[in-house]
Amino acid sequence: MSVYCEIVPYFDAIEKVRAYKPSGIILSGGPDSVCREGSPFLPLEIFEMGIPVLGICYGFQLLAKSLGGNTVSGGNKREYGKAVAVRLDDGVLFKDLPEQFQVWMSHGDRVDQLPAGFKIFAKSGNLIAAAADESKKIWGLQFHPEVVHTPRGKEILENFLTSACGCKRDWTMASFIKSTVESIKAQMGSESAICGLSGGVDSTVAALLVHEAIGDRLTCIFVNNGLLRKNEFESVLQNFQQRLHLKVLGVDASDRFLALLKGIEDPEKKRKIIGNEFIRVFEEESHKIGNSSFLVQGTLYPDVIESVSVRGPSAVIKSHHNVGGLPSEMKLKLIEPLRELFKDEVRKVGEELGMDESFVHRHPFPGPGLAVRIIGSITEERLFVLREADAIVQEEIERAGLMRDLWQAFAVLLPIQSVGVMGDDRTYENVAALRIVTSMDGMTADWAKLPYEVLEKISNRIVNEVRGINRVVYDITSKPPGTIEWE
């Protein structure tokens, strides 16, 4: 929203406040429970400095408890996913919002008694959805305004930023590019670098930023780990060399990756094996082309949040191959220019850098590739089956003109078989699940309400054209409680 912000853990928040003198403070959501002993807390000085404070979910529950209210464990009244908030009063946050509006809930605990001076501004059923003591510039929301599934959430945040905090919306991606390029120049000096390309928008934008800083001292490496989609190795190489004019080296290391993954079923082991082997390939290629000192990666903030708790008490959801999957000892120093950004911000950077729309809006593809879309062990046969099914998903989504409306669309090969009947014969073959979601930044997502005829076409084609699959199911789980990828 073009307002500069920094994320800091609760245990050094007071020092940051005093050092930066911010215009406002947002207390984020989190996986813990304020009812649990030892859960993250807040010093009361936060509320005594006259700085506007907005608590979201856990942040709301915490400020209510800290200021003399009461938060209780949810029991049977937990809320996950879509809900309807009923506005009881405008206040600062709900200016120009309708009386009822859709919100996104994700909580177990709830505030059942407000601190003195607080007033309820919205409810969700019988539960408090929003409350505030506007005289003290303190607001709390039980729902998440920052996700795309709270459609009016940006207006709520804008009201907090502009009306409550008096912020000017003047922090742009152009200013980010300028400061980042200067930072890379200072960090690297006259050294050279390699960039691990995946073909996705993150690593592409990271490569362009570093190329802007050091020019031809950057060599991009695109590794075929044997887990890519159908024809992806060839098409990505061609795109980078012909359309982005980056120096790109293609390395086919599929045999070594698949050998290491043989018989491995645990998804965390898969990710760590793949992350380690990527680094080893990069180190070898770096040595061949002249001992580059730096490795550029397109790591984003969601990767960091979900992989390692580096900035506070966030939960480890899964080890991303370029964060939690990195080996403990590396010869290359990391450069991660996008580490503090979310996907929607990265796309804006890409647009600012003049990238093609097809690059900017390419659907995310996980670093471990199809390894985390094949549940269970990975074999050449199962990879072939999944590639063929996934190619049909991509073709039909593209044909229906839905690519830009979706965050991700793909097939997952399940470790179960089901009975079918084909040509009057009994079959006993694999089940494929379709995972097609909408999202803004990948932190939350909802399943896509695709037209039935599109789902029907995908299902019919997979069953008819892919030998080995006789049943297609559709995953209708939101994130949370599910994740986008199955592993």
Give a quick summary of the entry:
The chain has 487 residues and is an alpha/beta fold.
Overview of this protein structure:
The structure is a single chain. With 487 residues, the chain is an alpha/beta fold. The chain folds into 3 domains: 155 residues, Class I glutamine amidotransferase (GATase) domain (Rossmann fold, 3-Layer(aba) Sandwich); 188 residues, Rossmann fold (3-Layer(aba) Sandwich), CATH 3.40.50; 102 residues, 2-Layer Sandwich (GMP Synthetase, Chain A, domain 3). The chain is built from 13 helices and 18 strands. The protein has a 7-stranded mixed β-sheet with strand order 1-2-9-8-7-4-5, covered by helices on one side. A hairpin with a 7-residue loop joins strand 16 and strand 17. About 2% of the residues have low confidence.
Attribute tags:
487 residues; Rossmann fold; GMP Synthetase, Chain A, domain 3; 18 strands; 22% strand
Query: What's the CATH class of the largest domain, please?
Result: Alpha Beta
Number of strands: 18
| Number of structural units classed as domains | 3
How does the major sheet shape up? 7 strands, mixed
Question: Which percent bin holds the helix content?
Answer: 25-40%
Evaluate the radius of gyration: 24 Å
Q: By helix and strand content, what is the structural category?
A: alpha/beta
Low-confidence runs (pLDDT<50, min 5 residues)? 317-326
Work out the helix count: 13
- CATH homologous superfamily classification of the largest domain: HUPs
Please state roughly what percent of the residues sit in beta strands, choosing from under 5%, 5-15%, 15-25%, 25-35%, 35-45% or over 45%: 15-25%
**Secondary-structure arrangement, i.e. CATH architecture of the largest domain:** 3-Layer(aba) Sandwich
